[in-house]
Structures are given as C-alpha cells and as structure tokens.
Amino acid sequence: MENILRFETVSRYNEYNNQKTLYPLVSVIDYSKADPSNDSWMFFGLYSVVLKDVDCGDIRYGKLNYDYQKGTLVFFTPGQIIGYESHGEYHQPKGMGLVFHPDLLHGTHLGKHMKDYSFFTYQSNEALHLSEDEKGIVMDCFSKIKFELEHAIDKHSKNIIVSNIELFLNHVNRFYDRQFILRERVNSGILVSFEKLLDDYFDSENPSAIGLPAVCWCASQLNLSSNYFGDLVKKHTGKSAQEYIQSKVIEVAKSKIYDSEKSLSQIANEMGFRYPSSFTRFFKQHVGFTPNEFRNLN
C-alpha cells in the first residue's frame, strides 16, 4: 500500500478529479472529467458515494472486492482506505459521485441520525444494485444538490444541501430494502449458515473458552460486514442479530437444564457465562423464571 492518496478535504478530491469547488464541504463529482487512472490506494476523510456507469476495474476494501458492477452504488465512510484496480490498463472513469465532509453535518438533523444509514459501513459483496428507475432517482437527487451548489451561498444553502443529501440517503434505505427482498434466496442461505454457525459454536468448547458469540464475530465468519449482517437478519427475522443470538442461547440453555445430572454452575460455564449469577439474571430476564425454577417446573 505505497503512495496512498489522501483525500481529507472536498477541494483536494475535486482537484484530483478535475472538478471546480463550488462549496467547501460538499461536491457532486462527474468522473468523466477526471484523468484516466491506473491502480491506486486512497484514504478518505470524507463520506463518499460512487455511482459506477461502466465496467472499468474493481474497487477493493482490504483483501476483498466490492460487489461493484455497472449501475451500482457503493458508500465509503471517513477513515476507509480504498484500492482501485484497473487490471494493468489505464481507463477513463465514468459515472457520478457525491462527497461531503463530516463538518457539513454538525448541528443538523442528518448529523444526529447518520448512524441510521448503516450502508456506509457495508463492505464486500454488499453494493446496491440499481434498477433504471432507481438510477433515475439517484441522478435527480444529485442534480438537486448540484443545482444548489451552483447558486450563490446564503444562510439557507447548508440546510437545503443537507436536506437533499438526507432525501437521497432515505431513498437508498428504500432501495436496500428492495434488494434484501429480491435476494431472499441468497439471504435465506446466509440465515441457514448463521443458524448452523451458532449450533456448531455451542456444540464446541468455544463458549466456556471465549464466552458468548458476538455479532461481529458471526458476521466475519459469514464474510459480511457487521452492519450489513445485522440489517439482513433484522429484515428477514424481525429480530436484531443480537436478539437472535440471545434466543439461541435460551434455546440451548433450556435443553441443558433438562439434564438433571448437570449443575446450574456447570451449565452456566458451558454456555459462556463467567459467573452463574450472570446466567441466572440473563435466563430470568428472557424466560421469566430462574434456571432452577425452570428445572423444577419441567
């Protein structure tokens, strides 16, 4: 990763892509104006959205390729290092992009709710594939932002620009909901794998050795980002990934409690709880009875 290009200001990114800086904290990028590019690594101190319009190379995050083809949107959050691979040839990039600095969001409604747009931290195989109608909506959102940027800055500019960015992000949330539904077969396979992962985990020595499985660990085992994985589980089960894991813990714990030869302390250790009292509190919170009361009832 030598010679990493650093983009910590909008003006620097505009300069790299031959764009004029119309507003210091946000820009709509027309990549057809950029110079032909070859392989490079880039550090972003900005929020960045890229709409790819032609097949012209791969974008990488770490060792993984983005699921990134013509007509897809990908999102980068500040602090990410992104690699661009052109397979040894120079290519003229095409498509549109939106970049904005975190400072733009201070004191705004969007700034308080950026965490709701979890797709900014999605990773490999998680890009948004747009229909033609959806692509038209994205381009319209970009056009509205650009229209405001091209006018003289006044006291209303920031609120209007941020409102249009928020509108765009809300559309993206809707489009991702559609994609989760259309990829139901793939996602169902992921849920089956998730269930098997938990079964295998609790059949092993892992709980007593390292504790309860974390959401981030499960996501990594399934080659997904934590946020994408969490959103997928929520969309298809109605439970958060953490709630799903907790329900599995209760299911396994109940089966162990039926085995009267095991003490509750032994069961707590096998389930990954450091202290029996922690297991008792957790079980009562979710079942309404302590483990001992549940054993006596059954």
UniProtKB/TrEMBL annotation:
Q: Which domain of life is it from?
A: Bacteria
Keywords, ordered alphabetically = DNA-binding, Transcription, Transcription regulation
Its protein name is: Transcriptional regulator
Q: Which residues form a coiled coil?
A: none
Q: Which Gene3D superfamilies match?
A: Homeodomain-like (1.10.10.60)
InterPro entries from the entry? Homeodomain-like_sf, HTH_AraC, Tscrpt_reg_AraC-type_HTH
- GO MF term list: DNA-binding transcription factor activity; sequence-specific DNA binding
Give residue ranges for domain HTH araC/xylS-type: 219-297
SMART domains from the xrefs? HTH_ARAC (SM00342)
Keyword ATP-binding (UniProt) = no
Signal peptide, first to last residue: none
